[in-house]
Design a protein that fits this description.
By secondary structure, this protein is mostly helical. It is 82% helix and 0% strand.
Length: 138
């Protein structure tokens, strides 16, 4: 379980970096009204893959932690457990959904629309809002 936790924590750095690169590149393309080309499509594809790998590893880690836990009925009573087992997973699913929608819109468009930037921005806000900063950074 320790390897899964370390992988999930380490891969998060890559996910955040790719999310920022995706957001900035789509913003540049949308503002400059550039046509969608292979570069921006590849950035979108790699970002989507990185986020989905993070989601799958997170689900494995979630299930392993849940099965190893005693007293699952106390999840909602504890702020720490509620954050770990409810708030963090749900917001990460929301974030990945927004970024996947952004990538799907990007693939279908001739020029990068602002809706791609908005969905990417909403996804990154959802992601950053529910990172366990206390445990992750220290």
């Amino acid at each position: 379980m320790d390897f899964i936790k370390q992988f999930h924590s380490g891969w998060a750095y890559l996910a955040i970096l790719m999310g920022i690169i995706f957001l900035l590149s789509t913003l540049v393309y949308a503002v400059s009204k550039k046509d969608t080309d292979n570069t921006i499509r590849r950035i979108g594809l790699v970002t989507t893959i990185v986020f989905h790998v993070q989601l799958l590893v997170g689900i494995v880690y979630y299930v392993m932690r849940f099965l190893a836990m005693d007293g699952a009925g106390n999840i909602m009573k504890s702020n720490v457990l509620r954050f770990s087992f409810v708030e963090h997973p749900l917001m990460m699913i929301v974030a990945i959904t927004f970024l996947t929608i952004a990538n799907a819109k990007l693939k279908r468009s001739k020029m990068v629309p602002y809706s791609v930037v908005i969905f990417g921005f909403l996804g990154m806000i959802a992601l950053i809002s529910r990172i366990p900063w206390e445990t992750w950074m220290g």
